Amino acid sequence: MNLKDLPKIELHCHLDGSVRPKTIIDIAKREKIDIPSYDIKEITELMIAPMECASLDEYLEKFSLPIKIMQSEYSLKRITYELLEDAAKENVKYMEIRFAPLLHTNGGLDTKRIIESVLSGIKEAEGKYDIKGNLILSFLKTVSPSSIFEVLEIGKEYLNKGVVAVDLCGAERKGFAKEFIEPMALAKEYGYRITIHAGETGIGENVLDSIELLGAERIGHGVNIDNCKKAYDMVKDRGIALEICMSSNVQTKAVGTIKNHPMYDFHKDGIKVTLNTDNRTVSNTDMSKEISLALKEFDISKDDYRKIYYNAVDMCFADEIIKKRLNEYI
C-alpha cells in the first residue's frame, strides 16, 4: 500500500500533545513566556516521551510545556491550524481533535473564547486543505465533576457547529466512572456524543463502567478489555469502537511491544478498531507511521485497512454528509 496516498481518518488526537516544537519557541518569544530553552533540539527532547516510559503518569508529564504556552487565542488558533495542516499533508481527510478547555484559562481566557479559538483554527485549515475537523471537549479525571457543568453549558452553543462530543481523559484509576455519571448524563441530554479514555492501564472493568454508566459510544484505547470478559463482550456485541493508539500504548506500558498489541486480534474477532496517533508530538508519530506499524507487525491486508477505515467513518461523530464524502475516498 502507498501510505502517502492512502486516505486516513483520525478519531483520537490530543491538541496539546501534537504541538510543533518550533511553535512552542515562537509563541514563547511572542508572548514573553519563560520556557526551559529556546533551542529547537532541546525543546523537542522535552516534548517527546521515550519509548521506555515507566508509566502513563510519566508520559503525561510531557504535556506541561505545551499547556504553558497554550493560554491565548492566538496560540490556540495557530496550534489547531497547524495540527490540521500536518494531518492534511499526510492525506488525513477527517479528524476529531480533543482538548480540555479548563487547562487553558491561566492567561485569563474564558471558556467561550477558548472554544472559539480552537474552532477558528479548524475552520481556517478546512478552508485551505481537503480536510474536515470536529472538536471533542475533554475533562481530566482529576477535576471536580461539578466543574464540568459550566463547560457543557457554554459548549452546547457550538454543538453541530464544530463541537461534537465530550471525553474523560488523563490518569486512570479503578471505578472513576461512578464519579461522573451526572455530568455525562447531562452531556448526552444536550446532544454531545460520548467517548471515554478507559482500559488503558490494566483496568478492563473501567470500560464496562464507561459504557454502562456514562453511555460511551467509543472507548479511548480499551486495550485491556481482554482481562474483563464482560467488558470484552459488551464492546463486541454493542459495536463500541476502540480508538487504538499503538505507539502511545507501548510508551505508557499499556502493552509491552507493538508486536504484542491486541489490536489485530480484536479486529479479527469482529471488534471495531480504529487507528490513531493519540499525541503526534509526544509519541513522535503520525497516521502514516501508525499504519506502517500495523502493516509491519500484523501484515494487515488492503481489505483489513478498508474495514478499519470504514469503522472510523461509521463511528466518527461527523454528520451524514461528511460520512458519505469520507466513504467515497476509498
Task: Tell me about this structure.
- The chain has 330 residues and is an alpha/beta fold.
- The chain is built from 15 helices and eight strands.
- 45% of the residues lie in helices and 15% in strands.
- An eight-stranded parallel sheet has the order 1-2-3-4-5-6-7-8, with helices on both faces.
- Helix 10 links the parallel strand 6 and strand 7 (241-244).
- The protein starts with 7 loop residues before the first strand and ends with a helix.
Q: Summed up, what is this model?
A:
The protein is α/β, with parallel strands linked by helices and 330 residues long. The protein has helices spanning 21-30, 40-47, 56-60, 64-69, 73-88, 111-128, 146-155, 181-190, 205-212, 229-238, 246-251, 263-268, 287-298, 302-315, 320-327, and strands spanning 8-14, 92-99, 132-140, 163-169, 193-198, 218-221, 241-244, 273-275.
- Classification by helices and strands: alpha/beta
CATH fold annotation = TIM Barrel
Strand content: 5-15%
Mean pLDDT: 95
Flag low-confidence runs: none
Q: Please write the string of helix (H) and strand (E) elements.
A: EHHHHHEHEHEHEHEHEHHEHHH
Helical percent range? 40-55%
For the largest sheet, list the strands in their spatial order: 1-2-3-4-5-6-7-8
* Secondary-structure arrangement, i.e. CATH architecture: Alpha-Beta Barrel
The span between the termini is 13 Å
Q: What count of structural domains? A: 1
Discrete helix count: 15
Number of separate strands: 8
CATH superfamily: Metal-dependent hydrolases
Radius of gyration: 18 Å
Site (Important for catalytic activity): 221
Function: Catalyzes the hydrolytic deamination of adenosine and 2-deoxyadenosine.
Active site: 200 (proton donor)
Family: Belongs to the metallo-dependent hydrolases superfamily. Adenosine and AMP deaminases family. Adenosine deaminase subfamily.
